[in-house]
Design goal:
This protein is an alpha/beta fold and 307 residues long. The protein has nine helices and 14 strands. The chain has two domains: 211 residues, Rossmann fold (3-Layer(aba) Sandwich), CATH 3.40.50; 78 residues, no CATH class. Strand 8 and strand 9 form a beta hairpin. Bound molecules: adenosine-5'-triphosphate (ATP).
Length: 307
């Protein structure tokens, strides 16, 4: 393995985390979860769910109004040199050239800067290092911002809809670069996006927010295995009587189709199949009252009892 620092096993841990903006309702409320180190995590949720708020708090740019958040074994912002945050608006200095922007990245991160990696990302987009940031398109700026973020060689990357304004080819290429880089260096990535199908290929972990709370958290395989799409001639009550939790159901030609969280095997007579990540996410978004599920790897350690 490449890392020489003693990386913590948990990259991010939230306990009762909440955030209010002024007198408004809570953007985040009582969120408790942990994000294991080295995972590529999808951060998903409807508009206004609190994704950007969570990422900005983890980057140390916003203070929680309640609860605690630990980032790489420290307070948010304490290990700024080991964390890269790519905000939704990709802030860069418009008057600088790309080359000057990357030089600034090198100066700000003297111990860790990977000039070759940053230069490669810019080159792959066919960008002239002498171009000024203000002359770039939105997608080209995103490429430079990603070059800055990856060049920093962070242990934790917090990416807020990083691919939103990239064309499909650039998205595919940059996602591939990001994933290969994260795998090579064991980087933890927490990445928000609305394009769930794309996340399914790239991510191995999921954090689903809704109404300011954590709705689902865990390894994607574990979460998919915990759910089943059942089809048959029965009612939702038949399933709940057996202890299964019906997240969402609809009646169609062949009978009932439901996404359930299983408690033991499903009775014979129901056809069963594992949901796709998109089916799982959509069902939970459509059913905001469904109970939350955190798998053991995402469940925070119990609070120590103080005497
Ligand atoms: N600076 C701010 N001042 C006041 N309210 C804010 C501010 N930033 C966010 N909010 C509110 O906090 C809530 C969560 O917003 P946030 O941007 O974190 O959601 P999001 O999940 O990232 O949404 P989207 O998918 O639309 O980007 C929303 O209700 C939003 O209106």
């Amino acid at each position: 393995m490449s890392s020489t620092s003693t990386a913590p096993a948990v990259a991010l841990e939230a306990s009762g985390l909440g955030k209010r903006y002024g007198r408004q309702g809570a953007a985040l409320e009582d969120c408790s979860f942990r994000l294991p180190a080295g995972r590529i995590s999808a951060l998903v949720g409807p508009n206004g769910a609190g994704k950007s708020t969570l990422l900005a708090m983890a980057a140390g740019l916003l203070r929680p109004t309640s609860g605690t958040l630990t980032v790489l074994d420290g307070a948010p912002g304490e290990h700024r040199d080991r964390v890269a945050h790519l905000a939704q608006n990709k802030p860069l200095y418009p008057q600088l050239t790309i080359a000057e922007t990357l030089s600034m990245g090198a100066e700000l991160n003297p111990a860790r800067w990977d000039a070759a990696c940053a230069a490669r990302i810019v080159e792959q987009g066919g960008l002239d290092p002498k171009s000024r940031i203000r002359s770039l398109s939105g997608g080209q700026r995103t490429r430079v911002a990603l070059a800055l973020a990856l060049g920093k060689r962070p242990e934790l990357m917090l990416l807020d809809e990083p691919m939103a304004d990239l064309d499909p080819l650039a998205r595919h290429e940059l996602m591939g670069t990001l994933m290969a880089d994260a795998a090579e260096h064991g980087t933890t990535v927490l990445m928000s996006s609305h394009i769930v199908a794309e996340l399914a290929d790239a991510c191995d972990h999921l954090l689903l927010l809704g109404g300011g709370r954590v709705r689902l958290g865990g390894g994607i395989d574990d979460l998919l295995t915990a759910h089943t799409v059942v089809t048959g001639r029965g009612t939702p009550e038949d399933l709940t009587r057996r202890g299964h939790t019906v997240i969402e159901s609809r009646t169609a030609g062949r009978g009932l189709t439901a996404l359930v969280r299983r408690d033991g095997p499903v009775d014979e007579g129901w056809a069963t199949e594992e949901p796709s990540l998109e089916e799982l996410v959509l069902a939970h978004l459509r059913a905001p009252a469904a109970p939350a599920l955190l798998t053991p790897s995402t469940t925070p350690a119990p609070q120590a009892v103080t005497a």
